[in-house]
Design a protein that fits this description.
Keywords: Chromatin regulator, Cytoplasm, Differentiation, Methyltransferase, Nucleus, Repeat, S-adenosyl-L-methionine, Transcription, Transcription regulation, Transferase. The protein is of the alpha+beta class. The chain is about 20% helix and about 30% strand. The protein contains 15 helices and 36 strands. The radius of gyration is 27 Å and the shape is globular.
């Protein structure tokens, strides 16, 4: 059965009505789930297997029948490990129906149907008793309910319910406990993701509005591959602290709680950011440990096990605070049932009640963390200011088309007195502009137009953009206001070029690679399920990834494949390019001499290493199978890209051929 669905088109800005199968949503969820990443995580799998074997042995040593409850079974992997380790029976709970069906198929294929029962329910809906889903309470609880923040997938409520209703009082748990660690640091690089910094424009120092400076910011975690943040970009102000532990073998509470770690500051500086991660002990003695610590915390960084389903967390303090070497500090972590947050007090304020950060300035609700970083990028700002300086005149009439942009302020300070803003967050942006200008005691004249536009400007940036070409919404806006433009109007940027480069990922390939077998179990039905969902649509499309977090090696030189001329309206016919010879990004030609890249920030080094813009996501098109390439330029990258103006989409096809 098919139905018409209204979908907002991020490129054209239109509401497109498309005919979709009723299975579209779950195909999309499966395709983007990255289940393969977990199964490729050898360190995780081995540690779970060791912990399960040990737990089964302990229960058997007590002379008990081993009954396992596996909450969030996914493929059924942990249940099959338990039965192989000697468990008598296993109840595998999986709420997502397609995954439960795949688990049933995998369990059957591996010959465990008589000892594993897959239950397609949320664990809080499972019943126990003669007529229930489970015949008896379990004496081993196995779960993988964790996310980067540990508790963000509802681990605490699930454990709380399981101990109350599904497992025995003296049950074993795998993992046995979790420990959360944190380190207080000073980092200008990371702090720029949270607070707007002063900006210098032609001798005018623009200070962020007090409301933004005093705002505690967004409460949500910033999860990143912390291993890709160079240690030299932050200064530790204290030791790595053990913040709290959760023993999963005992009753767990999901009630809000706070914990404090006291320490002396190791050095003087500005307390800005908390770096945090966790580890899990698979056994009571802590001999089997799976840690999420970043690579630079390893004695040998080369032994760091890469994983993307669990990363590390960055938390921004409500306000930066000066600390002195030797000063007594209290780092406080608080949590509710789904999230964590941090606060800092000095020794004299130990009884100060921690509060959950909440944005009061609107900026943190409109600007993402990468967007804050982009607005604070001094080199990028200089490029835009230089471009505006070269085109603006005192009588310029400007229209800015971007979300939450500072270009109107730059234009005003460079002499333009007639400026208007149009975007999806116009009231917020005008408020920010007015507060910044008022701070400098500069009168402002942000107006809506009665005159012809002489300068149409944009970064372009839009909050709805995910892929590089979604920002072509600027081109559609330019076309929509064509009749308002002066015949000699200047468009900034004047053009954009889409670039591609063939790459070999160090690790990111794992999220799309088939597993086949995992720890000796055949999980190919999951591979087949994911491939069916990918073939439904996703395998024909690129997906957004912040490539600065994922090292790769260039196998070809960057190549321009499509150019979009913003001085002209969007054409009626498709724009395409055929070339005989993949990451994709935009480069915006602000003027003839000034270009800003949303992808590579430096030329590819001789060995193929790439440095990527950390503020925007790039497009990644995964080949369905691995292409062997030497990386010395001998192979040809062939591609066919077509820009469809009516949908704003880019259809793409790539192939690699021998010379």
């Amino acid at each position: 059965m098919k139905t018409f669905c209204g979908r907002a088109n991020p490129t054209t800005g239109a509401l497109d009505w498309v005919e979709e199968s009723e299975e579209y949503d779950y195909h999309q969820e499966i395709a983007r789930s990255c289940y393969a990443d977990m199964l490729h995580d050898k360190d995780r799998n081995e540690k779970y297997y060791q912990g399960i074997r040990a737990a089964v042995s302990r229960v058997k040593a007590r002379g008990e029948r081993v009954v396992v409850l596996d909450i969030g079974t996914g493929t059924g992997l942990l249940s099959m490990m338990a039965v192989t380790a000697g468990a008598d029976y296993c109840y595998a709970i999986e709420v997502f129906k397609p995954m439960a069906q795949a688990a049933t198929c995998i369990v059957e294929r591996n010959g465990f149907s008589d000892k594993i029962k897959v239950i397609n329910k949320h664990s809080t809906e499972v019943t126990v008793g003669p007529d229930g889903d489970m015949q008896e309470r379990a004496n081993i609880l196995v779960t993988e309910l964790f996310d980067t923040e540990l508790i963000g997938e509802g681990a605490l409520p699930s454990y709380e319910h399981a101990h109350m209703h599904l497992v025995q009082a003296d049950c074993e748990a795998v993992p046995h406990r979790a420990t959360v660690y944190a380190q207080l640091v000073e980092s200008d690089m990371l702090w720029k993701w949270s607070q707007l910094q002063p900006i210098e424009v032609d001798g005018n120092k623009l200070l962020p509005p007090p409301a933004v400076v005093k705002c505690a910011g967004a409460p949500s975690v910033c999860d990143i591959q912390l291993s890709q943040v160079p240690p030299e970009s932050f200064t530790p102000l204290g030791p790595i602290c053990t913040m709290f532990r959760v023993d999963f073998s005992k009753p767990v509470s999901s009630a809000a709680q706070s914990y404090t770690a006291q320490f002396k500051a190791q050095t003087s500086g500005r307390a800005q950011v908390v770096l945090s991660w966790w580890d899990i002990d698979m056994d009571p003695d802590g001999n089997i440990v799976c840690t999420m610590a970043p690579s630079w915390n390893y004695s040998d960084p080369h032994t760091y096990p890469w994983r993307d389903h669990w990363m590390q967390s960055v938390y921004f303090l409500p306000a930066e605070e000066n600390v002195s070497e030797g000063e007594e500090l209290n780092l406080i972590i608080s949590h509710d049932d789904y999230s964590l947050w941090y606060s800092l007090t000095h020794s004299q304020n130990i009884n100060m009640a921690p509060f959950r950060p909440c944005c009061t300035c609107q900026a943190h609700l409109v600007w993402t963390r990468p967007r804050f970083g982009e607005l604070n990028d001094e080199q990028r700002t200089e490029s835009y200011v230089n471009a505006l300086r070269s085109i603006l005149k005192p009588d310029s009439v400007c229209l800015s088309v971007s979300d939450g942009s500072l270009l109107p302020i730059f234009a005003y300070l460079l002499g333009s007195k007639k400026i208007s803003v149009t975007n999806k967050c116009c009231s917020f942006e005008l408020s920010i502009h007015q507060r910044i200008l008022k701070k400098k005691h500069i009168s402002h004249d942000l107006i809506f137009f009665t005159l012809q536009i002489s300068v149409l400007m944009g970064e372009p940036y839009f909050s709805t953009s995910l892929l590089p070409w979604h920002s072509l919404f600027f081109w559609y806006c330019r076309t929509a206001v064509a009749q308002l433009l002066h015949p000699s109007a200047t468009i900034l940027p004047r053009a954009a070029t889409l670039y591609i480069i063939a790459v070999e990922f160090q690790d990111l390939w794992r999220i799309r690679a088939a597993c086949g077998t995992c720890e000796g179990f055949d999980v190919s039905p999951m591979d087949e399920m994911i491939q069916r969902s990918l073939d439904y649509r996703e395998s024909l499309e690129a997906e957004p990834h912040p490539l600065w977090e994922y090292p790769c090696r260039a196998l070809t030189k960057p190549r321009p494949v499509l150019t979009f001329d913003f001085t002209q309206c969007v054409p009626e016919q498709p724009v395409n390019r055929h070339c005989h010879g993949v990451a994709l990004w935009m480069e915006y030609q602000l003027t003839e001499d000034i270009t800003v890249s949303m992808g590579l920030t430096k030329p590819v080094r001789e060995e193929g290493a790439c440095e990527w813009n950390p503020h925007r996501k790039q497009g990644v098109f995964f080949f369905r199978s691995v292409r062997e390439m030497s990386g010395d330029g001998r192979e040809n990258l062939s591609y066919n890209l077509t820009f469809e103006p009516h949908t704003g989409d880019i259809k793409m096809n790539f192939s690699v051929t021998e010379p």
